[in-house]
Amino acid sequence: MTDTNIDTEIGIDTGTGAETDQRTSETDPADGSVSIADPDIGSDAIQRVQSVLESGMLADGPEVRAFEESFAAYCGADRAVATSNGTTALHTALEAVGLEEGDAVITSPFSFVASANAIRLAGGKPVFADIDPETYTLDPADVERILAKREDIAGLVPVHLYGLAADMDSLCAIADDHDLFVVEDACQAHGAAIDGDRVGALGDAACFSFYPTKNMTTGEGGMVTTNRDDVADRAASFVNHGRDVGDGGSYEHVALGHNYRLTSLAAAIGRAQLERLPEFNRARRTHAAYYDDQLDSLPLETPTEPAGYRHVYHQYTVRTENREALAATLDDHNVDTGVYYETPIHQQPAYETVSTAAATLPNAERAAKTVLSLPVHPTLSERDRRTVVEAVRDHYSQ
């Protein structure tokens, strides 16, 4: 399936992408710097927020329901439940799939800490498996290794990292064999796909973040997507103080829950951003293809896109053994960089008491020492891209 088809198959207005392609030096930062992120909200989102403000219905309501419906359709999922951020989406999904106190869950050590924190917040125990050194995502072979030694594993939380989906075919097959749930952490992978199927409907549930630097934003916000009505109903109740989802705004609370609701203001931004997500992702892929071509001859590793996968480049992450020196050269050229993530989760101070914190996970640990992300956001101009490439080339010509 082509990029165009995957963007238009559910009728989302993808536009022409001209806003990104026609950016000129007049809109570049005055100091010539190239930022690592640059959220593009747009006038349509501002108008929709204005409409919500004028309506007076600022909290949870019809605007949120409309956003949930559109986002579920985009992912190819039956249902979606909006939440206040990506972490609350993860917590909600784990509660909704039935994680119980003391259950062990296999996840990646090479991720933002929220993926493991959510397991603990839901009463579970994170168990870390190593990553594939090429994709930076959970290694199915290492998951199998752990399952061969432990009988207390209840589920998997694979992380779709940097915009690339994990090996869901293998991981879901493993989960089926061992009767495990699968919750996708898709917080960095809005629109990523495998063989034309978007992340968000590949496991029992999936979780997205709409933080400002993500591929689309609501300011702060999150979403749980699922094809299971039981999971969706439990999630909708959990984010709304455990209310009976069939009773609307009643004060009948049938379970323990939180106030994890998304506001109508955030949903209004989200609906506008979702319409532009295909445009944003095309721009990211265009920038990534330019980098792939221009950096191909240099002694650093560029991102992998396996056959059949569609990478949406939340980050364009290279690997080099002397990361600090390359980052310093880029900084000299006024190019921002980022390290995601410098310390694997199992080595974080907050995880010293977790049973698998002492594990040796060589692929994750090497990645943490060698990865460096370059600017790839949609509003990069051609001059920005040239500046990045020239800075990298300058570093390796010294």
What does this molecule look like?
GO terms for molecular function: pyridoxal phosphate binding; transaminase activity. Belongs to the DegT/DnrJ/EryC1 family. It holds the Pfam family DegT_DnrJ_EryC1. With 398 residues, the protein is α/β, with parallel strands linked by helices. The chain has 2 domains: 43-271, Type I PLP-dependent aspartate aminotransferase-like (Major domain) (Aspartate Aminotransferase, domain 2); 278-397, Aspartate Aminotransferase, domain 1 (Alpha-Beta Complex), CATH 3.90.1150. The protein has 13 helices and 12 strands. The chain has helices spanning 3-8, 18-21, 43-55, 62-75, 86-96, 114-121, 140-149, 168-178, 229-238, 264-294, 323-332, 362-370, 382-397, and strands at residues 79-83, 104-107, 125-128, 153-157, 181-185, 193-194, 197-198, 205-209, 222-226, 309-310, 316-319, 371-374. The strands form 3 sheets. A 7-stranded mixed beta sheet has the order 1-9-8-5-4-2-3, with helices on both faces. Strand 6 and strand 7 form a beta hairpin. Helix 3 runs antiparallel to helix 10, helix 5 packs across helix 6 and helix 5 (86-96) packs across helix 9. It is globular. The chain starts with a helix and ends with a helix. The model is unreliable at 1-27 (pLDDT under 50).
